[in-house]
Amino acid sequence: MSSVLSRFTPVSLRGYKRAWLSTDVIAGLTLAAVAIPETMGYTSIAETPIVTGLYTVIFPTLLFALLGASKLLVVGADSATAAILAAGLLSANISGVTPGSPEWLAYTSFIALICGGLLVLARVLRLGFLGDFLSASVLVGFLTGVGVQVFSGQIPDMLGIAKGAGTWLEQQWYMLTHLNEISWTTFAFAAATLVIIMGFKKFLPKVPGAIVAVILLIVVSAATQASTHGVAVVGAVTGGFPPIGLPQGIDLGNFGSVVTIAFSCFILIIAQSAATSRSFAMKHGDNADVNRDLIGLSGANFAAGLSGTFVVNGSPTKTQILDEQKGRTQLANITMSAVVLLVVLFFTGVLTDMPKAVLAGIVFLIGVDLIDIQGLKRIWKRRRGEAIIAIITAVVVCAVGVEQGIILAIVLSLLDLIHRQYKPNDFVVGINKSGDPTYQVAAPGTQSAPGLLVFRYDSDLFYANANRFIDDVESLINSAPDPVRWLILDMGAIADVDYSAGIALGGLLDFLKARNIHFAMARADEGLMKTLKDYDLDKRVASDQIYGNLIDAVNAFRAQPTTPSPS
Predict the structure, then answer these.
(1) How far apart (Å, rounded) are the C-alpha atoms in residues 399 and 65?
(2) Same domain flag for 485 and 380
(3) What is the pTM of this model?
(4) Please, are residues 77 and 349 in contact by the beta-carbon 8 Å criterion?
(5) Containing structural domain, residue 317
(6) For residues 25 and 20, what is the distance between their CA atoms, to the nearest angstrom?
(7) Nearest to 536 by CA among 499, 565, 562, 561
(8) Number of domains into which the chain is organized
(9) How far apart are the C-alpha atoms of 513 and 398, rounded to whole Å?
(10) Which of 393, 418, 443 is the last residue of a domain?
(11) 253 part of a folded domain
(12) Distance CA 366, CA 451 (A)
């Protein structure tokens, strides 16, 4: 019986202990206090009705808890995917679809459904590794650029002035040239929001300052009738049970445009959720199952698309809060969902007098937190080239757009990978008197011993680096202080050789034969030997030219007479 129950228990809840119940419930209540104002704020980025932010942590969170593997990952609205979503829809310029309209919301839900489909496809094809193609440095740059976009986009609402149109730079210029229109009462609410949240963060970090700011400033707004003094308020919020069903009014002629937006969100969902899930699983000694989490994320986005809201993602910040509150499993997230459902069913009326400047202040601080200056400094100190790539990504996100920024981030990550594979470390290896290998950077004029060249190349061989590999070997042979009699390739770091590189290796054997240089290989694994056999190179390299380790190969060289012997 217990085995049957275990089979139907969600992966994220297996092995549950009753002692965890109280801490999970308390953590869920705390998480709800953070998520309610934050997710409402994200709607100002996604340009959707405020209640849709609350919808993102009801059924989407519940579906991930039931289908995903991670015990802690919190799924819901996210600033980066909301920014990609809004920027993509604006640039698509779909006829009759304007920010905040029912048609706009229908398309945001449709994009969530497409994301769900892409995530299912990623699971079927085991594409969880795609998230690894956004390098950590590029992701820092991308999120920094998103942070600048997010916080700067809230400043007009915090000041009570209209938002400009056009590019990010045009919007900032419009704001700077209209500062004379500031509503000081609006700014007072925004400033109070910042002071309250930052004050609680500094002096009472365990109390969610955002929910305190929301409750307190709603009371102040209602008591002072702030809306009559030029302060824009949320107004009536349509609550009730989330609407269930397919989004209506979608023109499938726009499918190509929305798929592009969904794909950008999909890549960020995989990268951000996988990184968050892995880091917290490792912290607690658990195993991360990224492919299983893809099913949970897919279900979450299907739930979002079918319940009238927008794309959802794993949230690093809310997952961190859950961990700090000693939450142990997804029961904490289910508790959060239940609390938020109660809010949308019975308490949306209290949001009527909430100043929009309060939500803008909350999102402003979220945007500021995304700007990782310290991370950029660390990257600059350790890998200046990667730091430059991160900065370029951030600038493109701001100056061109978030959707273009994610595409650039993917391209730059791949180019960085190819560059490192194209120009890896290479060494001339020697053996000291103790019998241990020594490594010198492979530069012209270096050799392992008189007449011996042991060459190590720290990368697989493929079409882009094969010729460079051959050029390096030939350069070392031509510049060696003593005529080279033996070349030993240390294959310990070469796991694969593609077809182009196989042809290049054949050319190297011709070169060595013409120079009367004996060829040998050391530390080639079975997979590599099979690949070389596929290219018929095994017919040109006898078994007595292949050694299991470097010591045996070097000793074979030392046992040979000093006169050259044919290969």
Answers:
(1) 38
(2) no
(3) 0.79
(4) no
(5) 18-418
(6) 9
(7) 499
(8) 2
(9) 57
(10) 418
(11) yes
(12) 63
